[in-house]
């Protein structure tokens, strides 16, 4: 999944796309309603491409988790974030069986599914091409000629 330029702003609901910058602020646009406004360095901003969840082997990028959900759901929406914490944890365990159950909180899981559905509704879930797979296909094509 390509989550470049998608951010979360602490204290504000929803997700935002970065559309511009100036010396003192960043101009963002809500992916839900398209409203634009400036956000300042005093706001805590998190880029979705840098967020990961804890697993027992290390960390897994949010984009990789979203890719797995996208594949499981056939590109459709996923479980509603308002479901019970137990249901959300069961679903996450299907997607990432080795997630760290002690370090990943219910609020994190709820946000993970809420953001996925927001991105789905805004048509912002873009699959990033796998370079290795593309190179393998190109080499195979070159060998045929």
Based on CA inertia axes, which overall geometry fits? Answer: globular
Beta-strand segment tally:
7
Q: State the end-to-end CA separation.
A: 33 Å
Low-confidence stretches: 131-145
State mean pLDDT (0 to 100 scale): 87
* SSE succession: EEEEEEEHHHH
Radius of gyration: 17 Å
Q: What is the topology, as strand order, of the major beta sheet? A: 4-3-2-1-5
Helix content: 25-40%
Count the helices. How many?
4
Based on secondary structure, the structural category is alpha+beta
How many strands, what sense, and barrel or not for the largest sheet? 5 strands, antiparallel
Q: Strand portion, in percent?
A: 15-25%
């Amino acid at each position: 999944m390509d989550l470049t330029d998608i951010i979360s702003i602490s204290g504000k609901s929803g997700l935002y796309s970065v559309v511009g910058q100036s010396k003192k602020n960043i101009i963002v646009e809500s992916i839900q309603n398209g409203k634009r406004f400036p956000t300042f360095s005093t706001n805590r901003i998190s880029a979705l491409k840098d967020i990961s969840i804890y697993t027992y082997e290390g960390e897994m990028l949010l984009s990789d988790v979203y890719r797995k959900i996208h594949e499981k759901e056939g590109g459709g929406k996923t479980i509603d974030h308002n479901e019970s914490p137990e249901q959300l944890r069961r679903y996450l365990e299907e997607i990432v069986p080795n997630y760290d159950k002690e370090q990943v909180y219910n609020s994190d899981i709820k946000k993970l599914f809420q953001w996925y559905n927001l991105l789905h509704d805004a048509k912002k879930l873009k699959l990033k091409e796998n370079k290795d797979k593309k190179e393998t296909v190109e080499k195979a094509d070159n060998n045929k000629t």
